Amino acid sequence: VIPNLEQLELRHLSDEGQFPLNFFHHVKVLKVNGGFHGGSPFIFFFLRRFYNLKSLEFDNFDFKHVVPCKGDVGTPSPIKNLQLTSSKNLKHIWKKDSELGHILSNLQTLTIKNCDDLINLGASSVSFQNLTTLEVSCCKMMTNLVTPLVFEKMVQLITMRVSDCTKITEIVANEGDYHQTIVVRNLKCLQLSNLESLTSFCPGSYTFNFLCLEEVVVEECPKLKIFSEGVLSTPQLQSVKQDSLNMNRCRAGDLNTIIQQLYMEKVGCHGLGDLTISDTFPELIEIWQKSPRAVLELTYLGKINFYKCSSLKYIFTSSMLLSLKQLWRIE
């Protein structure tokens, strides 16, 4: 035993038997680098020797040939922090009988970076119950992050950041048959950055109740049209920021309305106060017809252009027209 060894990095591990059984008794932080060969298939047998492990990182590790632990091989340490960087052949963080699944229930922090094979976190509703921080970035194959049931069971989650996942279209998947109100109890900060395919946080008509959500950051999400299609409650929301570093680019108000306004401005505005509505962007016409509040709160509008709007049934209701006090020209 090395009595004071608490942090350890292992590279190109191939022969776990070269170490005595009690060699890693006091290690709390472990990084496993798969190296050229992708790592050992018996890594999870080996991890049973780390009795006090709190933080684990897999870097450039290939999970394809990992051998699951069976029989009486001991229990894994209650790991609090897990980081997966450039991991290969990992489609779900949790799946039935997976070795990663056995260590998830105690996690407080989960960080995932550059895992190009990852599709989503998986479908277990009990695996992430102690998670407080979730950060996911640069996962090329990810199309959504979690199911509605898994998201609701993340009862301790405080911070969620998702960025640079080019194929992700939704954060919470639309499963259609989930009819309960999704109560999100502790989430305070949600950051969505550089998600070029994201169209909504959740496309399903679910009811979301974010009890503690205070800050939302939405930056470089050009296709984001609405936060949620269903009923949405955010009683503690203080601001929606367009830039995590620029405090001046923030707004307050109804979350769905702000997201719709940002989309309208991004697609239809040609300058401050100049908005164009046309069939080229049918989403704008849909917002114009279904969500007049998003239009009414654009109080700075001075000029509106309507061009080839064959699907538009009307231009204004009386209340809309009276609310746009800066409007001086319609074409």
Question: What does the model show?
Answer:
It is a single chain. This protein is elongated. An eleven-stranded mixed sheet has the order 1-2-3-4-5-6-7-9-12-15-16, with no helix packed on it. Strands 17-18-19-20 form a four-stranded mixed sheet. A three-stranded parallel sheet has the order 8-11-14. It is α/β, with parallel strands linked by helices and 331 residues long. The chain contains six helices and 20 strands. It has two domains: 7-253, Alpha-Beta Horseshoe (Leucine-rich repeat, LRR (right-handed beta-alpha superhelix)), CATH 3.80.10; 254-331, no CATH class.
Features:
eleven-stranded mixed beta sheet, 13% helix, Plant_NBS-LRR, plant defense, elongated, alpha/beta, At4g27190-like_LRR, 331 residues, four-stranded mixed beta sheet, Leucine-rich repeat, LRR (right-handed beta-alpha superhelix), 2 domains
Which architecture of the largest domain would the CATH scheme give at its second level? Alpha-Beta Horseshoe
Biggest β-sheet strands, sense, barrel: 11 strands, mixed
Can you tell me the residue ranges where pLDDT is under 50 for at least 5 consecutive residues?
Answer: none
Q: Indicate how many domains the architecture comprises.
A: 2
Mean pLDDT: 82
